[in-house]
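Researcher: Can you fold this with NAP in place?
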Amino acid sequence: MEKIKMTTPLVEMDGDEMTRILWKMIKEELLNPFIELNTEYYDLGLAHRNETDDQVTVESAEATKKYGVAVKCATITPNAARMTEYDLKEMWKSPNGTIRAILDGTVFRAPIVVKGIEPCVRNWEKPITIARHAYGDVYKNVEMKIAGPGKAELVFTDENGNEQRETVFEFKGPGVLQGMHNTEASIRSFARACFQYAVSTKQDLWFGSKDTISKKYDHTFKDIFQEVYETEYKEQFDALGLTYFYSLIDDIVARIMKAKGGFIWACKNYDGDVMSDMVSSAFGSLAMMTSVLVSPTGVYEYEAAHGTVQRHYYKYLKGEETSTNPVATIFAWTGALRKRGELDGISELMAFADKLEKATIDTIEGGVMTKDLALITTLENVTALNSQDFIHAIRTRLEELL
Ligand code: NAP
Ligand code: MG
């Protein structure tokens, strides 16, 4: 078979620890034999970030803006222990934070659904993708403890010194007080990313907030989503047969529990934080969760939702056998390759991504999996393999499909 050719480079961000080991295995076993991989390689491993004063992270994000698609391996976010372990010049910031700030994105997380790893909610047949707004609200709040009686006010002073003033509360005794904000620009870019992602994955979009109680704050979210929908996306939604559905967050939560899945659930920052943990654990495992950062201009960065699996890496270094699950990392690659194929009109690349995903799912559904899944599966007579052998089993199935 002739190898599939690529026209535009894919931005490849290598990472740390066990996922770096898996990265190499996936390329060698599942990609290089079938594709003439055209990547622009950035080593985001902590040692190299340290050598380049973290410039490599910035460069990789700039390259993503230039080419439009990136695939990222999990990376260490340094803490005190990592300072000594890697002899760091500085406690470098989270690469994901740096990349997010440059691309101005929204994070979408979706579970990989396979038979045998059953969601706790019986009627969830298809994945539910959470789109979390990643700016403002309680994460950029200002808080006070109030010692005793007094008046709390909300004051805004504009550039000309004009004041807008509201009484928050007349305290009769001790209490607590909090102020938070968001910007129309950030809400609009969140809305665009959600509609854009719905179009590109051909899924309905649901959004809920508490606009009945929060008549200005949450209502602004509702209004901006509605405006972006009507002025920029309604035609595309109609053409694709997609629905945009807004309701009160309470109603959305109730409906989610009864739904079949297969849609995107846009959440305000706090709702997304809480609900993504609920949805991901209800679907089974962090090792089966994909994550993609989408910018409002349509730039995509794919990764696994989990970290570098440090505990397994130390076992690996001691020469012990490890059974780390590579599925989310494989799906980061297939997501990126499919998107590259779509943008460049290379149908073979898109078909390859579909087949690699199918080979992975078939392998698990055939009872062959890593240890983490073997512990929670409802399938009987399963074989738990180490990472290398599991990836090899996927290769065997992939060759059948090709
Ligand atoms: P982690 O790497 O997600 O792993 C936590 C635990 O979850 C593991 O010890 C393992 O449990 C299980 N697990 C996660 N992924 C798995 C997989 N693919 N296969 C099998 N089991 C898996 O989180 P962490 O250990 O807290 O963090 C390690 C490093 O990752 C940190 O330096 C952190 O900064 C970084 N991190 C990076 C990202 C990112 O780049 N996106 C995200 C999160 C964390 P058992 O040990 O019980 O087997
Ligand atoms: Mg959380």
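Model: Folded with NAP in place. Residues 273, 277 surround magnesium ion (ligand 2) (CB under 6 Å).
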